[in-house]
Each structure stands twice: as C-alpha cells, then as structure tokens.
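Anyone else keep sequences and structure tokens together like this?

Example one:
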Amino acid sequence: MYEDVQYEASEGIATITIDRPDVLNAFREQTILELNAAIRDAREDDGVYTIVLTGADGAFCAGADTTEMPAWDEQAKEDYAGYLWGVQNVVRQLRAASKPSIAAVAGPAVGAGCDFGLACDMRVVGPDAFFREGFVRVGLIPGDGGGWLLPRLIGESAAKQYLLTGRDIEPDDAVDLGLAVEEAEDPLAAAHDLAEELLGLPATAVQRTNDLVDSEQGFEDYCERAIEYQWDCVNDPEHHEAVAAFNENRDPEYDRDYS
C-alpha cells in the first residue's frame, strides 16, 4: 500500500515512518500523499490510541527532495497551491487528531520536515537531532505551518530568532525551550514508552484533554467545551473502571480491541 512510508499499527500504537533514507527522508509528492493517507488511517482506526511519527535510519525528514520537484516558477500558481496544500495537510491532520501524536526525532528535521515534528503533540529527540526552519536560507517563507507553530511552542521572540536566521535548534536547546519533552539515546523507543504510558490511561479522557488544549480559544470557550468533554468522560466505562481500580488499590483493566 505504501512505497515511501512504513505504517504499522500494533497494540494501540500506530507508528508512521518516513522511509527514504538515501535522501535523509526528504519527501516527494508521493511521500506527501502517503503521509496524509497514513495519518488518516491512524485517526480513523478504532484500534489505534496514539500515533508515533518518525523517520528511517537516523534522520527524521530533511524537507522537500529538490531533485524530485518540478520548477514551480514555470508552473501555474494553482498547481503549486494544490501541492503546498497537501504538505500543509500533513500538519493540519496531526494537529486535528484527538489521538496524541509523538514525534521521535533522531536526526535532521528540516523545513517542512521540521514542521511535521512541530505539528505533533510532543517531541522526543536524540543526541544527533536538530530542528531547522531554514526557509529563509533559500529565499522562501515557512509555508507549511512553522511560522504559526513555533511561536506558540517556544514564544514569539525565540521563534523569530530561529525563523529569521534559519539557525538549528539543537537537542539541549529543544528540551530547555520546551520544544521537546525528552532527549534520549533511542528516541523511537522513548516515544513508544511515552505512548504506552498514555495507553494505560482512560482513552476518552486522554483524547478530550488533548482536544481541550487550544491556545487559540478564550477562557469561556474553554469552559463550554470542558462541560461537553467532561460529560463524555463521566459516561465513559473506562472512567468508571479507573475510579473502581483506584478505590480498590489495583491496576485498571480496560476492555479494548487493538486489532
């Protein structure tokens, strides 16, 4: 089904791997089509509770593979807009997913590849990882979402430093800035550990909490949404099992089908 992407759903975790290691997992149009399809599959699969996004063989994603791209300045604007919309839709889908997503970044995350990592709910980085919004270095703007995402993650002033200079965000800085939750020798294993920790919690509560964290909403909007989401949780069997397990001093047992 996939050529440029590996997709594996197992025990509640969907692992999506960008698999073009010969070009540091840089993407072509086919890659973007497959990434969108894989994320959609994970979002729609009732047996998937968390999503891990990573890249093959030590890289995350080095951005667009320029050797596979047409000369866009010789094409119609509408054609370029359609292509860019597809790239943006990877970010759009990750942000819209109720199921928590974790980026496991072992190496370069550059350009739109950086934005794919930023679009995830959390990031784990390896010692050789770095994030680079390097668009200005080649005379472009962060058209895939980075100029919107990065200020919300690390603050406007710090974000502009990286956006306007194209400097790398190294692993230590990523953790210090709150961009990454952890630095680990094996970021994919650490991301799966975090995903499994989330799997041990009531899924509706995890997903509704993920939906509720929205920096664009006002407080009253938050409160209105919280009423609806809390009602979902109150009526969720996993909530009742979690409370019973707490009262009985035991681990909860959730009735789930991961197939």
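And example two:
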Amino acid sequence: MNTDLDTLMIRFSALKDAGRLMELDHQVWDHRTAPQPLVWESREQYLLHCPPGQQLVAETGDGTLAGYLGFKAPTELDSSQHVYELWIAVDRQYRRRGIGVRLMTAFKAFARREGKLKLRLRVLSSNEAAAAFYRTCGFREEGRLVREYHVKGQYVDDILMACFL
C-alpha cells in the first residue's frame, strides 16, 4: 500500500517552514508535554529562537511537515561543544508511524558527522510515552529534578536523559 509516508523525506528546516513549525509547536507543547504551553508571539520571535537549519523536518510525499527534531549546543562554552541538546515533536495524526524514529536516526548520523559525542534532552515525568520513546532510541536517565514543576495541580519531575554516540 502506497502512503504519503512511503516517500518521507528528512531534511533541514528552511525559512518557508516557519509557519508550519509554529503550528506544530502550538499543537504539541501543551501541559502534558511542557511546563507551560509554547506560544509564539510572532513569526519573527519564532525565527529568532528557532532559525532555519536548526531542525530536521520530516516531510511527507504530499509536502506535509509531519514532525521535526530541533537541536542546539547546550551552551556557548568550548568545553560543551561535543554535546547537542534536542527536542522532538510529531503531529498527532502521524504519531506511532515511525516518524520519530526516522528523525532520531537521521539526527544521530548528522551529530556523529559533526563530531558530537553526547545528545541530551529533558522530559516531564508525566509524559511517560515520550520517556519510553527516548529509552527505545538509546537514551538513559542521567538525573531528575524532583517536583520541578507544578502543572495542572500536580507536581512533576523534570527528567534529564542522554544518549552517548
């Protein structure tokens, strides 16, 4: 069966993707997945924080951006330039179809070519599905900030995870 995912392309983000990436952020980063919902005030604000080329995007055969993996250096210090911090978002209608795994696999290959040795991320303890996904991608818990956030009447931990390449 031919689907729009048969020709899924993983590529770096471009300026033209900003609007759709902002939509994905609005859809994905809510109280279940973040300490507070992510809302961009403007396209300019988004581009200032997420410039083109700082995400890998998953584009379906029909041109739909189904997800992305954003990344950055964790600090500007020379001593941490072997590390990338990352976050991943997949459109609800495309979840559990292998897009996250394909983004992560492509990103790991890119990070290795860039000479990176460690990938790190943060996930809320209340987001068990995401934590399980990261574990299947080779991430392990490095630390936990206990009761770091108070979200919708409950305290949640901020789990720090890492994958060594």
